[in-house]
Amino acid sequence: MYCAIDFGTSNSAIAIPAPAGAMRLVELERGHSTMPTAVFYFVEGPETNGPPRAFGRAAVSAYVDGVDGRLMRSMKSILGSALVDQTTDMGGGRGVKYIDIIAGYLRHLKTTAEAQGGAPIRQAVLGRPVFFVDDDPVRDRQAQLTLEAAARSVGFEEVHFQYEPIAAAFDHERQIDHEEIVLVADIGGGTSDFSIVRVGPKRATRLERKDDILANHGVHVAGTDFDRRVELASVLPEFGYGAYGPSIAGAPPREVPSGVYFDLATWHLINTVYSPQRVAELRAMKVNYADPLHHKRLMIVVTERLGHELAARAEQAKIDVAGGGDAVIDLSHVESKLTARLTEDSAVDAIEGDIERIVNAARETASQAGLRPEQIDALYFTGGSTGFRLLSQKIAEAFPTARAVRGDRFASVATGLGLHARRLFDRA
Questions:
Q1: What is the radius of gyration, based on Cα positions, of the chain?
Q2: Is the residue at 46 inside a domain?
Q3: How many domains, the chain?
Q4: What pLDDT score was predicted for residue 95?
């Protein structure tokens, strides 16, 4: 019994063998084969195989609901840093090493896969980025060794790695009968990563594929940035964002202070708005609003802790217009019959700058490989944010002769790692 793990910055997945020599993704949560890479440590509760904690969507829900504890996300980003061996306070007198947070999450993936597969798992392929740490090969190697140590600590006896962009391209590689140069565009929640890879049927039999990665580049701009800008552009104006206060003593009206709105549009900062001190400060700001209804709505949001719900509705509106068309955003949970509207044009205006940065990163990746745009044979799109039609169109326009290929937006890497695991372990 073996497995393949996509331990992602935002989401993770695991694949195990299926009948007839195939691989299948494990259902990590009911109805979901991918799970947020998140752990919530509860301040109170009994210890069972470690501190009391929740994983994935349950972890995010505990945080959103304001349960006393600490949410850990983007754990992958600490690999290669000095934080790995440090201990962080989880509340309730408990301290946990960052490496143990990663190990605990991997153990949860492994245990879930073993329960569904019906057998212990001792062998694993893990995905890794081309660079855990840019421009520092020593720290980059240490990052992989640390992840390997975490995997071995939870019971994996044989651990191998494969590069994530190569894994993402495996699905495309098995469908072609000739060699190609492919730009893999992996655009998720936090980053937009691009890799130029060489694929083909003759190369598919090779287990070591690093030489097939011709360039790798990316920017820390992606889906969560889109969500933030969309919420500021469409939802939060109904609560006073961008509005002006009254004219005082004939002076020109001043814009309402915007800090609270940026926090409400930034997922991990929303809970900071709910502190008693912050609520008192916002209540005292009523005089800054020319329209008292804006302030009233804002206070309902912060006192009833509706910030994450606003963010979720803005994100859903972005998804609804991703394929074209408009969306009406229901805000009646704040005020009866209150709605906001997001059109495709307004969404484009909101994120145009971010899209330009992402497309420029794609061009730069080709340049680093020493290739002209017309030398790219195919564009392979994966990652949740590639579902945004305008984004994929703009990338395609930058490489006009390349054909677009769409993989599974959320599971291409895990599926590709599964193919590699099957070749590796079945061969053994």
A1: 23
A2: no
A3: 1
A4: 87
Residue 428 has pLDDT above 60, yes or no: no
CB-count exposure of residue 250 (10 Å: 0-12, 13-18, 19+)? exposed
Q: How far is CA 252 from CA 23, 246, 369, in A?
A: 66, 8, 54
- The residue written with tokens 């879930």 in the block is 112
Segment 218-229, tens digit of pLDDT: 888 888 899 999
Q: Is 173 among the domain residues?
A: no
Could you tell me if 11 and 34 are in contact, meaning their C-beta atoms sit under 8 angstroms apart?
yes
- Do the bridges between strand 22-25 and strand 403-406 make them parallel or antiparallel, or are there none, so unpaired? unpaired
Give CA–CA dist 55/72, Å, rounded. Answer: 10
Alpha carbons 300 and 26: distance in angstroms, whole number = 41
Which two three-digit tokens encode residue 24? 């299948």
Label the pairing between strands 35-36 and 327-330: unpaired
pLDDT tens, position by position, 374-405: 999 999 999 888 877 888 999 999 999 999 99
Residue 280 structural domain: 224-348
pTM of the model: 0.84
Name the nearest CA neighbour of 361 among 261, 219, 264. Answer: 219
Tell the burial category of 163 from Cβ atoms under 10 Å away from its Cβ (0-12, 13-18, 19+).
Answer: buried
Return all residues near 57 (Cβ < 8 A) that are at least 6 apart.
Answer: 29, 32, 35, 36
* Residues in the chain, overall count: 428
